[in-house]
Amino acid sequence: MTTAISIDNLQAESPSTEPSVRIRDLNFHYGEGDLFKQVLFNINLDIYPGQIVILTGPSGSGKTTLLTLIGALRTVQDGSLRVLGQELRNLGAKNLVQVRKNIGFIFQAHNLFYSLTARQNVMMSTDLYPKDISDIAPSSRSADILTKLGLGERVDYKPHALSGGQKQRVAIARALVNHPRLILADEPTAALDKKSGRDVVTLMQKMAKEENITILMVTHDNRILDVADRIINLVDGNLESDNVVNTDVTNDTRTFML
Ligand SMILES: Nc1ncnc2c1ncn2[C@@H]1O[C@H](COP(=O)(O)OP(=O)(O)OP(=O)(O)O)[C@@H](O)[C@H]1O
Q1: What count of Cα atoms within 13 Å lies in the side-chain half-sphere of residue 29?
Q2: How many CB atoms lie within 10 A of CB 137?
Q3: For residues 172 and 180, is the Cβ–Cβ distance under 8 A?
Q4: How does pLDDT run across 198-209, given as a tens digit for each residue?
Q5: What's the CA gap between 83 and 100, in Å, rounded?
Q6: Which residues sit with their C-beta closer than 6 Å to ligand 1?
Q7: Residues in domain ABC transporter (predicted)?
Q8: What is the DSSP letter of 4?
């Protein structure tokens, strides 16, 4: 039995490895003039390969904003944000696309195309972000990953014939098919019942550990907190706490367990 202790503002440092995400003095605001609203304040954070980090915090605290900045979906305004070794600040559109190729996105609304089969939905990823990662054709690669996620029998079914949990697994397959090094998930279990939610995060955990993928997941779902290696709490745009709950994944020699 391990007990987490709070290590406010202390990063889980792993000197031997380059962090997947390295954030320094990051600020972000929406709007200008009368509409100016700062939503992230002086964020500093390192996330290492293979870590599963859960980002929690009250509604409106800036979680999705932070996730979309890390996903190279927003422009970095102030501070430094390195993702997979690439500084995103001042990076041109073309290079931002290159960074996104190594990121898998999973959202609450799985955003599947209802006119396409599970396999074709997964192939959207290989079409949008073609990566020269294997000789296997995208169609077979998509079927393989669906099978790995327990949907071997459903490869050529359309979403309306799938359950909520199965649809979310298609979305996970789509995020994983290009072998991303980083997965960003925003409330991936919000629309799922307890068992489906558990199955989905267990699968994500397995993939993270098997393929050394870094996962950053925003969730309000207390039922899945145990999959995390670290739990970070954001309040009013500030990193309020950073709790390491599993030290196995860092090379850190400090002991955080009581
Ligand atoms: N496009 C936008 N323009 C202006 N303000 C925005 C925009 N998107 C978000 N905000 C505001 O920024 C703040 C942070 O929003 P964000 O969605 O990042 O929070 P969150 O923690 O993800 O919230 P939730 O848990 O409700 O999804 C909120 O006050 C929100 O109203």
Answers
A1: 9
A2: 11
A3: no
A4: 888 888 888 788
A5: 10
A6: 30-31, 37, 39, 57, 59-65
A7: 21-257
A8: -
159 vs 204: CA distance, rounded Å:
20
Looking at the whole model, is its pTM more than 0.90?
no
Spatial neighbors of 87 by CB under 8 A, at least 6 apart, are 80, 81
Structure tokens at 79: 């501070």
Q: Which of 152, 151, 122 is nearest to 139 (CA)?
A: 122
For residue range 34-68, what is the model confidence (pLDDT) as tens digits?
Answer: 999 999 999 999 999 989 999 999 999 999 999 99
Ligand 1 centroid to residue 84 C-alpha, Å = 25
> How many Å lie between the centroid of ligand 1 and the Cα of residue 65?
6
Q: Is 245 helix (H, G, I), strand (E, B) or coil?
A: coil
Atom of ligand 1 nearest to the CA of 35: 4
Distance 42 CA to ligand 1 centre (A): 17
Q: Can you point out the beta strands (E) in the chain?
A: 21-30, 37-47, 52-56, 78-83, 86-87, 103-107, 182-186, 214-218, 230-235, 238-244
Task: Report the 3 state secondary structure along 57-72.
Answer: CCCCCCHHHHHHHHCC
Q: In what order do the strands lie in the sheet with 21-30?
A: 37-47, 21-30, 78-83, 86-87
* CA gap 225, 223 in Å, rounded: 6
Q: Decide the pairing of beta strands 214-218 and 52-56.
A: parallel
* Ligand 1: nearest atom to the Cα of 57: 21
Please choose from 27, 63, 222 the residue to mutate so as to test ligand 1's pocket, defined by most ligand atoms within 8 A of CB.
63
Average of per-residue pLDDT across 188-204: 82
Cα–Cα distance for residue pair 230/19, rounded to 1 Å:
14
